[in-house]
């Protein structure tokens, strides 16, 4: 393999754009981005030419330096240059950026980075709000939707003063009429001051709760009852010649009634008393003429769940409420109250609440020692929900005093100002859909504005394919006036939905909270937004956009990236996906190894040129190297874990059978229901069974086979730490063992040092100048902060006395600076330490140092550190492992290592379940469960299951087609 020397730039073959008919770079454009002498992280003085206006893929083994070149060098320099265009005053507020370790970069355009970071943890942030589609929808509804009454379903009407007068003259001609202005509607109070105000205005009569009364001195009503009060503005006989008087009365009534008024015919004949005295409502606003319900004029914030004008008052626009459930309060009904049957109260203590319960139970011939299951269900319900005053006063009743009830009492504590009390209550509460808005997040008035028969909440919960179909030809279902107003808005909404469909997100809906999206999904949403901006001349840098994407959707993603390139942008993608590499215009392969063994350009050129280069990547692309399959699959335990009737989200009453003691892959297109079935249903059930976790699983029928397992371990994609103090040694727990080992050294014992002396996070052994960080941050006004090694400890983190204690001649700092590979040899006779370090080496992280800062780890590295941590724990052979796309950020060679580790786990009798799209890992599984066939509403069923070969032959679902292709070219290992 050739390593790139720093002196020369790699010559560039004719970019593949010529064949695709791409426009040649204009003469005044720099044809290349030229990087000279990049040394960031593990890069070895790399100099390289990257063609502009092309789709360029950076590939190579995990940890070889791809992200260091793309993000930490090219993007960091682009961002720094942009910041330098601001005034010194503006930069002082923003903080500056450090110059990356590179000699120079030429031909750099403005840079936009689209990374995998989930955009927001805010529960109010949804797909609709971050793509701005929901903002356009709000505007569309505010300007064109029709209002309907939530009481009768009738269409709301709006009347001008003249229309009201003409209506009265037409319908009440010659009749006696009372004109009323409503001032109080359905509220409690004595209203003494209001009656005084009305009298001062010159009015002599009011109508209170349907009865006409004269205003008297000190007049008031019952303050504890609900009242309706109207001012009697005028009493007249309706005649055309008295139009002027009627007009004045109507305007007066509308002024005092704040836009609404009533008229009453006292002589009207009705079948019932209620009908006889029924007034007719009129309003300048939207109003239901039958009930008098009026809505404010709609504005965009009427449809915003983040605004008090639109949010549901019960859940405050979150769509769910924290409800205290009976099962959480009474987790084990075999226990009595005194033995802790009521979980929030705990075991019996001599306090008021237990005395109260004892009194109530005594009346029912029971005691605090009676098991809950033996108490009548009616009595339990009353203990939980309360005994009212009426029941307590009832002579037939056995109760002596009212009792609030345990659940109402706990509910009151949820609003407590004490954090401790709120945390205590949180463990008995679970999120439930809001009973008021049914999860739509908006108040009832907002949900009764409709466009072509649908309210805005219904549109938000449609998946994007359905939504696109609904907007197709919506003009035919709208009136001419609505079409004139909506024309531009509809164009904008359709365009944005189209971009999301283009990057394979058809299964999402606008209502979906952003915090539930995977890194790959949020990255593709940002990609769709960038396509929508239609910028040209920009350099886009992306970090594995294909993560979480099924092979079927890869083609759409590649087309979206090619579209970005075709409109005149340069696109750099850090990627391991085979299809993406083969569709690129130009490829840079970085290697040859990882960490200190990487940082060189080992091959460059068009995909065809890469195939002949002999690099590790090219060997896998050309088929010289393979991840080999075993002809014979594991027999497993012969038993199954069976989950019946899973109905969460889009699942259609699924029965999942996971064979125990095997390596099982769950596959399916994005949005088919894999995460719903495994993460949101199966894992919470197992977690609750083994560890009493409180997270509620989604709806399911029953589960069998739990007793055949003894624990569950989930390895997901969240980072291992967000501060430089977190590192592989602290995360895996090996640091604790190393500190204990150093505390056992004779020198440490003589000095009286315990394990805490060897921690860089607590006072004692650490350097106090930098507080154990090893670096000091110097704040510079108007310039970026500068990080310099600590002048006291020279970056070693500990004080001189601590470093004098040595093991095999190495201080604690020397061990933190050691690579995992070297540490395996160094600790060969320390079994507790060796077991944990060895697993880090086995998952392909031998190149990391034990003390490497968590913030410098890539996504794939962080996930493998977590995997190694779990593998380092002693397994019992009955453990159930759940892994979420463990191939994230892994090169073909690393997937080979990972497959070997997972096979070892299954060989010991453990059950390994992986949610995966990568065919290299799916094909080596013993059992495949394919969910689909489509995403969103079109998914949620198990379409095929069996060995990879059986699923490939089945021809059902999208996975079988791609798996069949993969198996054709795969080789089987010799038995």
Automatic annotation (TrEMBL):
Alphabetical list of InterPro entries matching this protein: ABC_transporter-like_ATP-bd, ABC_transporter-like_CS, ATP_grasp_subdomain_1, Cyt_c-like_dom, P-loop_NTPase, UvrA, UvrA_DNA-bd, UvrA_inter
Major localization listed first in the record, in broad terms: cytoplasm
GO molecular function list: ATP binding; ATP hydrolysis activity; DNA binding; electron transfer activity; heme binding; nuclease activity; zinc ion binding
GO annotations of cellular component type: cytoplasm; excinuclease repair complex
A Pfam family recorded for this sequence: UvrA_inter
Gene3D superfamilies: ABC transporter ATPase domain-like, ABC transporter ATPase like domain, ATP-grasp fold, A domain, P-loop containing nucleotide triphosphate hydrolases
Record localization: Cytoplasm
Keyword Nucleotide-binding carried by entry: yes
A single GO BP: nucleotide-excision repair
Domain ABC transporter: 627-964
Cytochrome c domain segment(s): 272-429
Homology family: Belongs to the ABC transporter superfamily. UvrA family.
UniProt name for this protein: UvrABC system protein A
Organism: Hymenobacter nivis
């Amino acid at each position: 393999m050739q390593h790139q020397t720093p002196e020369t730039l790699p010559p560039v073959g004719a970019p593949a754009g010529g064949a695709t008919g791409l426009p040649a770079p204009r003469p005044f454009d720099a044809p290349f981005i030229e990087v000279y002498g990049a040394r960031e992280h593990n890069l070895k003085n790399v100099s390289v030419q990257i063609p502009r206006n092309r789709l360029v893929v950076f590939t190579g083994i995990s940890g070889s330096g791809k992200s260091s070149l793309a993000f930490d060098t090219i993007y960091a320099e682009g961002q720094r240059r942009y910041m330098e265009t601001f005034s010194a005053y503006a930069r002082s507020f923003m903080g500056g950026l450090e110059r990356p370790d590179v000699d120079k970069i030429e031909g750099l355009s403005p840079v936009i980075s689209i990374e995998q970071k989930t955009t927001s943890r805010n529960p109010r942030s949804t797909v609709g709000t971050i793509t701005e589609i929901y903002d356009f929808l709000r505007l569309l509804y505010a300007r064109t939707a029709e209002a309907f009454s939530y009481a009768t379903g009738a269409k709301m009407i709006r009347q001008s003063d003249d229309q009201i007068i003409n209506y009265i003259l037409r319908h009440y001609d010659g009749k006696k009429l009372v004109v009323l202005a409503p001032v109080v509607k359905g509220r409690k109070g004595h209203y003494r001051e209001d009656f005084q105000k009305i009298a001062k205005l010159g009015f002599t009569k009011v109508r209170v709760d349907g009865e006409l009364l004269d205003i008297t001195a000190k007049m008031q009503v019952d303050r504890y009852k609900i009242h309706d009060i109207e001012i009697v503005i005028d009493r007249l006989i309706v005649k055309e010649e008295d139009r002027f008087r009627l007009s004045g009365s109507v305007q007066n009534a509308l002024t005092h009634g704040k836009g609404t008024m009533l008229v009453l015919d006292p002589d009207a004949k009705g079948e019932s008393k209620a009908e006889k005295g029924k007034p007719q409502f009129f309003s300048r606003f939207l109003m239901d003429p039958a009930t008098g319900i009026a809505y404010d004029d709609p504005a965009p914030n009427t449809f915003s769940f983040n605004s008090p004008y639109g949010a549901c008052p019960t859940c405050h626009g979150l769509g769910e409420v924290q409800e205290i459930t009976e099962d959480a309060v009474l987790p084990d009904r075999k226990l009595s109250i005194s033995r802790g049957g009521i979980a929030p109260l705990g075991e019996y203590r001599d306090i008021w609440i237990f005395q109260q319960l004892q009194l109530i139970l005594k009346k029912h011939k029971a005691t605090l020692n009676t098991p809950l299951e033996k108490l009548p269900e009616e009595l339990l319900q009353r203990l939980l929900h309360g005994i009212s005053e009426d029941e307590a006063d009832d002579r037939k009743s056995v109760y002596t005093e009212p009792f609030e009830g345990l659940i109402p009492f706990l509910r009151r504590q949820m609003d407590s100002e004490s954090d401790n009390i709120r945390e205590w209550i949180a463990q008995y509460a679970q999120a439930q859909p809001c009973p008021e808005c049914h999860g739509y997040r908006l108040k009832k008035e907002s949900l009764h504005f409709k466009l072509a028969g649908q309210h805005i909440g219904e549109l938000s919960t449609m998946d994007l394919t359905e939504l696109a179909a609904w907007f197709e030809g919506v003009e035919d279902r709208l009136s001419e006036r609505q079409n004139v107003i909506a024309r531009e808005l509809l164009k904008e909404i359709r365009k944005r939905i189209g971009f999301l469909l283009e990057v394979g997100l058809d299964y999402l809906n606008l209502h979906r909270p952003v915090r539930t999206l995977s890194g790959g999904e949020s990255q593709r949403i940002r990609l769709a937004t960038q396509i929508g901006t239609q910028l040209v001349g920009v350099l886009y840098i992306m970090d594995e956009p294909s993560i979480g994407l099924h092979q079927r959707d890869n083609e759409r993603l590649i087309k979206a990236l090619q579209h970005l390139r075709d409109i005149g942008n340069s696109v750099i993608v850090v990627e391991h996906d085979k299809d993406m590499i083969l569709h690129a215009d130009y490829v840079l392969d970085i290697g040859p190894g990882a960490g200190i063994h990487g940082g060189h350009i080992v091959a460059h050129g068009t995909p065809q040129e890469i195939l002949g280069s002999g690099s590790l990547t090219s060997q896998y692309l050309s088929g010289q190297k393979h991840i080999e399959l075993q002809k014979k699959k594991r027999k497993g335990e012969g038993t199954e874990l069976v989950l019946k009737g899973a109905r969460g989200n889009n699942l259609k009453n699924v029965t999942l059978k996971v064979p125990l003691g095997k390596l099982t892959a769950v596959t399916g297109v994005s949005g088919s229901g894999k995460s719903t079935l495994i993460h949101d249903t199966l894992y919470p059930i197992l977690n609750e069974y083994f560890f009493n976790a409180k997270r509620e699983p989604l709806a399911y029928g029953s589960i069998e086979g739990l007793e055949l397992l003894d624990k569950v371990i989930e390895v997901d994609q969240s980072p291992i730490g967000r501060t430089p103090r977190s590192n592989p040694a602290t995360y895996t727990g090996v640091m604790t063992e190393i500190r204990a080992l150093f505390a056992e050294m004779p020198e440490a014992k003589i000095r009286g040092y315990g394990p805490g002396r060897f921690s860089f996070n607590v006072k004692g052994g650490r350097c106090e100048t930098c507080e154990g960080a090893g670096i000091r941050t110097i704040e510079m006004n108007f310039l970026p902060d500068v990080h310099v090694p600590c002048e006291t400890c020279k970056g070693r983190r500990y004080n001189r006395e601590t470093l004098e204690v040595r093991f095999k001649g190495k201080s604690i700092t020397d061990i933190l600076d050691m690579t995992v590979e070297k540490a395996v040899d160094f600790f060969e006779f320390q079994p507790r330490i060796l077991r944990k370090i060895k697993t880090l080496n086995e998952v392909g992280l031998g190149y990391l140092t034990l003390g490497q800062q968590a913030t410098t780890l890539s996504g794939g590295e962080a996930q493998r550190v977590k995997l190694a941590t779990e593998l380092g724990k002693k397994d019992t052979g009955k453990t159930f492992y759940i892994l979420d796309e463990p191939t994230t950020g892994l090169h073909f060679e690393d997937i080979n290592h990972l497959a070997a580790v997972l096979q070892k786990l299954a060989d010991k009798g453990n059950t390994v379940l992986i949610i995966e799209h990568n065919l290299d890992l799916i094909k080596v599984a013993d059992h495949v469960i394919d969910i689909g066939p489509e995403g969103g509403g079109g998914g949620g069923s198990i379409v095929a299951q069996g060995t990879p070969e059986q699923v490939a032959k089945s021809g059902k679902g999208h996975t079988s087609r791609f798996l069949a292709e993969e198996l054709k070219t795969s080789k089987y290992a010799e038995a």
